[in-house]
Amino acid sequence: MQKLSRYSIIAAIVASMFVVLSLACLLLLNGLVGLRAVITCARVTVPLAALIGSFWSWQAWYWSRRSRTRIVMQGRLSWLCIALGLLILCTRGVAENIAWYIHDDLYFLPIRYMISSLFYPFLFTAIIALPGISRLSASKVVDVLITTFCLAGICWYLITIYPMVAPPADMLVGEWLPRLRLSIIALAGDVFLLLLFSYFWQQGVRTSMRLPLLLLNVGLALNTLADAGAGWFDANSVLYYQHHVPWIDGCWIASLLVLGLSALYQYQAQARHALSDAELNIASENMAPDKGTSALDTDRICRYKLPIQGMYVPLALLLGGLCVFEVMYIHRPANEGVDGLFTLSSIVGMLIVVRHFFATRENAALLRERDQRFHEAEQVRNLVAQLADILELDTLCEHIMHVVIAQFGFTSVMLLLLEEYNQPLSERSHLLVHTASQLVQPLKCRVTGDSILYQVVAQGYERELHWSTYLSELPGEVRRWQERQHIPSMMFFPIIYQGRILGSLGVARHVLSRTDLSTASMVRSYVDQIATVIEHSYLYQQAREREKFARAMVNISTRLNAAVIEPVELSQLICVEGARALHADYVIFYIRRAEGVLEPLAISIDGQQSSQQLSEWPSLRISEYEQETAQPLHPFLLEVSPYRKMQLLTESSQHAIVSRDHHPGSRQFVLKAKLIRHRIYTAILAPLVTGGHLHGLLIFASSVPLGSNTDLSFDESDIPHAQDFVEQASVAFTNAQLYQRLSTANEQLKELDEMKDQFMVTASHELRTPLTAVQGYIELIAQYDETLPAEQRREFLHKAQLGCEELEVLLRNVMDASRIEAETAIKPALISRVSVQEILEKVLVLIEPQVTQDQRQVSCNIPAQLYVYADPLRLHQVLMNISTNALKYSAPGTPLLFSAGRSPEQDKMVVISVTDKGKGIAPQDQTRIFQRFYRLESDMNSPIRGSGLGLYISRRLIEAMGGKIWIESRGVPGGGSTFHILLPMA
């Protein structure tokens, strides 16, 4: 905007310098060089001035085409016509110079007037299309034409019939009068445009457009003056005007530049007006009524009292002149009757003029009133049009109040809207109160009950409310707001849409004065139109709530088609979607446990998952829950604390009331105390029912922040939505539990199937090896029995016997695993006091041949008086399994360590440890090696045989004896593993 202003100022300076320099050149050339130099200079500067003015107008037109602002685009046609009109004058100057150069000036005279006549239609169109001015009716244009023709007729009459000017001595009357009349006709176009402008100034011009229109008016006036001088010289010279008078050419140059300059200033004014509207919209969005200014205050319509009725004076002068001329200069006795009739007709014509004068005044008053009403209606329509795109109710209320303050001059506004707009009015109806003021902070609250505000809305007609009379009937927040700004009264206008009351709009000024009729009419029209916008906002809000609720229901329903879903995950989803659907700040999901207790499973706070705060919410006994309602299987509203009692309490006073009114040992008190600490006054408890039984509970609640004036707590009207939601959620949660059970069963079947396959592979591999050895040795003995030495025969038989023993061990492990699976505990009679040192010595005796063969070093760190409670036979079997595995899965020559002692973590327990230096076991495999038939991949491909049941049997036996077995290993080759057995100390 600053760049445009600088450009306009520079253009004005250039125009001023051009005019001054041109006039100076014309004057100096006339005295120093001669007339021909003056004519040459004028013939160059006048078309050049027209070209510069046309260029400026073209620039304004081009800029307006690039702009997308509707306000800036309004003057596009006007600037285009000004540019074309000035271009026509430039063309006329160029044609004059060509004719002057070829010495054919006289023949160019008709062409000159024909080209000049095209200038006036373009300029007339430009004036009609000017932005920022009132519309001109066709009757006004006709009046201007009549006046123009009357003035031309007077001049024609004075020169032709009553010649007041004599022709030059060297010119005949027959040649002089046509040229003079032609100059008068040409001058009539200038007079018509000037009179048209006088109408515009009277009807109203926008403040920002005064300077551009004044420049345009000055340009027309200078052009009229120059045309008048040129016309006079045309009539009093042998040839037409030859550009030899400096002041005439200077007026032409100035008028052409000023006309083009006016287009630039018009565009600047329109751009500034568009920028002001944008800033006003931003101020409206930021709700700064003390800084917002009215569009009418900054760019209002200015009207000027001009004697427009004096336009009919030329008509009266024409008729009067005819009457005087008839009486004083024409005396024909034979025509006295005709003369008297002519005189009478002239008098009647003047009376008609007088009558028309008074009628015009009356019509002008009516037109002003009509235009004012139209202007007010148009202003209100534009203001409401700015609100049409706002769909959020709170934002819409803020803009409605700001418009009232910024546009209508009020200092305080109160907007009362019914929350249940589509339900009948009752004392339980909630009223949304929005206020705005230039002195105090805005207020937004939600009130209910039969207050004076409810009565104002329910009555449905205009009412002036004096606050002092009804001060005790005002809600606390509204009363404090009114007391801070000291408003004695407020005028309320009902907001009614199609016969249905939506609310009321109250306006007031701090200055003790009544609202004038004009402003009241505008406010009334404004209220009538915003009713439609508010209704649309209500419908949008209702549709959006339904959409959110439907979306939440769809999100829950889609989970029904899921193959597997965890109940915990679904419960969290139910909380999040429930908060979104019912606009709840808190949604807590309680699940029923077998012991008759409802425990919190999931929670959503402000629409977000918050598992960290789940433990803070107390559990509920079902018996206590059933005491809260007569229908425990249906949703109900829990009154935690009445709003009227708690709305003015601070946090400390709330805790004091809780401590005083409730017994500390009450479970019911624990839940309510938790809700009160979160400033929750009401909550909806919705049970999840399946097959007529309570399986869970959903709690919906909304808190009221400390110091807030708005209570969005739940009430009875929210129960149907909670009912719909919890029914769908109950089905989804029940299905999720069924899916989980089916999924668990399916996983178990898959695991069993995998273990069966693994057992078949393992059994076939492990059984085949000893069977092959037994079969091979028996076949050798059978084939070479006669030739084999006795010693070798005994060796073959011994090896076959070892294979059979290995088969026996494998089959015994399978039988033990099956028996352990059926018998989950060891008989108490088999449990006895066992010495750890003695049982480990028996194990060492059995593994000593293998230790000696592998050249291993065995270390023992076992206290002598250490006893445990166990089955000696089963404990020996477990220690043999672990020791045998340590020998098989560690390299020969590596040491073994047996240790035992009290558990450092559990005082009455003993830990027995076996450590090897084998390849170790990775952490991810340490729990899986205790499962049935599980062998590491590296073990299955190694020559070391095994059934995969040894560690499984060991785990089950130790657990049956009330102990625990686990492994410690880093999984690093050479780091080895340590197996720990934990048993009760004896």
From TrEMBL:
<dbReference type="Pfam" id="PF00512">
    <property type="entry name" value="HisKA"/>
</dbReference>
<feature type="transmembrane region" description="Helical">
    <location>
        <begin position="310"/>
        <end position="329"/>
    </location>
</feature>
<keyword id="KW-0808">Transferase</keyword>
<keyword id="KW-0597">Phosphoprotein</keyword>
<dbReference type="InterPro" id="IPR004358">
    <property type="entry name" value="Sig_transdc_His_kin-like_C"/>
</dbReference>
<dbReference type="InterPro" id="IPR036890">
    <property type="entry name" value="HATPase_C_sf"/>
</dbReference>
<dbReference type="Pfam" id="PF01590">
    <property type="entry name" value="GAF"/>
</dbReference>
<feature type="transmembrane region" description="Helical">
    <location>
        <begin position="7"/>
        <end position="29"/>
    </location>
</feature>
<feature type="transmembrane region" description="Helical">
    <location>
        <begin position="107"/>
        <end position="130"/>
    </location>
</feature>
<dbReference type="GO" id="GO:0000155">
    <property type="term" value="F:phosphorelay sensor kinase activity"/>
</dbReference>
<dbReference type="InterPro" id="IPR005467">
    <property type="entry name" value="His_kinase_dom"/>
</dbReference>
<keyword id="KW-0418">Kinase</keyword>
<feature type="transmembrane region" description="Helical">
    <location>
        <begin position="680"/>
        <end position="701"/>
    </location>
</feature>
<dbReference type="InterPro" id="IPR029016">
    <property type="entry name" value="GAF-like_dom_sf"/>
</dbReference>
<keyword id="KW-1133">Transmembrane helix</keyword>
<dbReference type="InterPro" id="IPR003018">
    <property type="entry name" value="GAF"/>
</dbReference>
<feature type="domain" description="Histidine kinase">
    <location>
        <begin position="762"/>
        <end position="986"/>
    </location>
</feature>
<dbReference type="GO" id="GO:0005886">
    <property type="term" value="C:plasma membrane"/>
</dbReference>
<protein>
    <recommendedName>
        <fullName>histidine kinase</fullName>
        <ecNumber>2.7.13.3</ecNumber>
    </recommendedName>
</protein>
<feature type="transmembrane region" description="Helical">
    <location>
        <begin position="142"/>
        <end position="162"/>
    </location>
</feature>
<keyword id="KW-0472">Membrane</keyword>
<dbReference type="GO" id="GO:0009927">
    <property type="term" value="F:histidine phosphotransfer kinase activity"/>
</dbReference>
<feature type="transmembrane region" description="Helical">
    <location>
        <begin position="341"/>
        <end position="358"/>
    </location>
</feature>
<feature type="transmembrane region" description="Helical">
    <location>
        <begin position="77"/>
        <end position="95"/>
    </location>
</feature>
<dbReference type="InterPro" id="IPR003661">
    <property type="entry name" value="HisK_dim/P_dom"/>
</dbReference>
<dbReference type="Pfam" id="PF02518">
    <property type="entry name" value="HATPase_c"/>
</dbReference>
<dbReference type="InterPro" id="IPR036097">
    <property type="entry name" value="HisK_dim/P_sf"/>
</dbReference>
<feature type="transmembrane region" description="Helical">
    <location>
        <begin position="245"/>
        <end position="265"/>
    </location>
</feature>
<keyword id="KW-0902">Two-component regulatory system</keyword>
<feature type="transmembrane region" description="Helical">
    <location>
        <begin position="35"/>
        <end position="56"/>
    </location>
</feature>
<keyword id="KW-0812">Transmembrane</keyword>
<dbReference type="InterPro" id="IPR003594">
    <property type="entry name" value="HATPase_dom"/>
</dbReference>
<feature type="transmembrane region" description="Helical">
    <location>
        <begin position="182"/>
        <end position="201"/>
    </location>
</feature>
<feature type="transmembrane region" description="Helical">
    <location>
        <begin position="213"/>
        <end position="233"/>
    </location>
</feature>
